[in-house]
Amino acid sequence: MMWFILLTIIKSIILIISILVAVAYFTLAERQFMGTLQRRKGPLVTGFLGLLQPLADGLKLFLKEIIIPSSANALIFVFTPLLSFFIALLNWSVLPFENTVYLSNVNLTLFYILSLSSLNVYSIVLSGWSSNSGYAFLGCLRSTAQMISYEISISFILVTICLNSQSFNIIDIVNAQKYAWNMFALLPLFFLFVISILAETNRHPFDLPEAESELVSGYNVEYSAITFAFFFLAEYANILMMSALTTCLFFGGWYFFGYSSFIFLNIKTVIFSLTFIVLRALLPRYRFDQLISLGWTVVLPLSLFFLLLNLVIVKFFLVNTLVNYLVVYKYIV
Fold first, then answer.
1. What whole-number distance in Å separates Cα of residue 241 and Cα of residue 99?
2. Burial letters for 70-81: b for 16+ Cβ neighbours within 10 Å, e otherwise?
3. Closest by CA position to 170, among listed 93, 108, 89, 261
4. CA-to-CA distance for 292 and 142, rounded, in angstroms?
C-alpha cells in the first residue's frame, strides 16, 4: 500500500513537471511560429535561439508584486487562479498516453473531463466577481456564457462518440480506432468539436477576453504577477489537453497503422496544437453576438442532429443484429 501511494506521488510529480515544461515551451513555439507566419522576429535574445525566454517570463511573473484591489475580496481573489490551474491539472490525471501508461484509469473518463470543465466556470465567475470591478464582472459573465454555450455542444459530440465506441473510457475509444480513425467516419462532428474547443478554451477567433476592442482583458483584468500566471498556465494547459483529447477521440490516439506507441500520441498532439496557432495568425476575431449566435443556432443544432442520427443508426443495427441471431437460433433449434 505504501509503495502504491509513493509510486502515485512520483507519477503525479512527473506529470505536473512535464505539463509545466510543455506549456512553457508551447508558448515559445507559438511566438516563434506566429513570428514566422507574420514575417517578424520572435524571441531570440534570452538563451540560445530564445530557449530560455519561457523561464525568464516565469521568473519575472513570480518576482513581481501581487496587486490586490482595495475593494476586492482578497481570499477569493487569490484562490480563483489556483482553482483554475488545479482543475487544468486534474484533467490530465485521467488522460492515458498508451494502453498501460496513465496516472489513473477511470471508466467514465469523458464524464469526468466534462464535470471538471463545468467546474472551471466557477473560477471565471468568482475571479470577475471578487475583483469588484465592472469591467472584470462583465467580462466574466461573457466568458461564462461563451463556455456554457459550447459545453453543451461538446457534450452531445462526446455522447455520439461514446455510442460508436460503446464506452466512456478513452482507452476503449482509442482501441476502437486501431485501424480506422473516427475522423473519417465522423468528419462533420470533428469540425464541430474543433469549433467548440476553440470557444471553450477562449482561443482565437473566439478569444474575446484578450480582444483589444473588447472589455479590457475581461475577467482577469485586475490580476497581475503570479496570479495572472496561473490563469495563463491553466489556459495553455487546457489547450494542450484539448489537443491530446482530440487526438484520442478522432485520430486514433497512440495508434498509427495498427502500431502502438505513446510517441504517436505526442506527435499527433503537437501537430494538432499547431492548428491553434495557425488559426490565431490567420482568422479575424468574432464579435460576441456572432459567437453566441454560432453556438446556439449552428453548432448546437448540428451536434444534436448527428447525435439523434447516430442513435437511429445504432438502434437499427442492434435490432437487425438481434433479428439475425433469432433467425439463426430458430434455424439451429
1. 18
2. eebbeeebbbbb
3. 108
4. 10
CB 116 within 8 A of CB 58: no
**Residue 253 near residue 174, CB atoms below 8 Å:** yes
Contacts of 79 (CB under 8 A, 6+ apart): 126
The DSSP output letter for 224 is -
Domain locations in the chain?
A: 1-63, 64-332
Strand partners, 259: 256
Q: Which three cell numbers stand for residue 185?
A: 467516419
The H helix count followed by the E strand count for the chain is 12, 2
What tens-digit pLDDT sequence spans the chain (333 residues)? 667 677 777 877 888 888 888 888 888 888 888 887 777 777 777 777 778 888 888 888 888 888 888 888 888 888 888 888 888 888 888 888 888 777 777 788 888 888 888 888 888 888 888 888 878 888 888 888 888 888 888 888 988 888 888 888 888 888 888 888 888 888 888 999 988 888 888 787 887 766 655 556 678 888 888 888 888 888 888 888 888 889 988 888 888 877 888 888 888 888 888 888 888 888 888 887 888 888 888 888 998 888 888 887 766 665 555 444 444 444 444
> Which cell numbers in the block locate residue 261?
506507441
Closest residue by Cα to residue 165 from 109, 82, 221:
109
In sequence order, the β-bridge partners of residue 144 are none
Task: List the grid coordinates of 10.
Answer: 512520483
**Consecutive H or E run containing 100:** none
Q: Are 254 and 108 in contact (CB under 8 A)?
A: no
Residues contacting residue 271 through CB under 8 Å, at least 6 positions apart: none
Burial class (CB in 10 A: 0-12, 13-18, 19+), 48: exposed
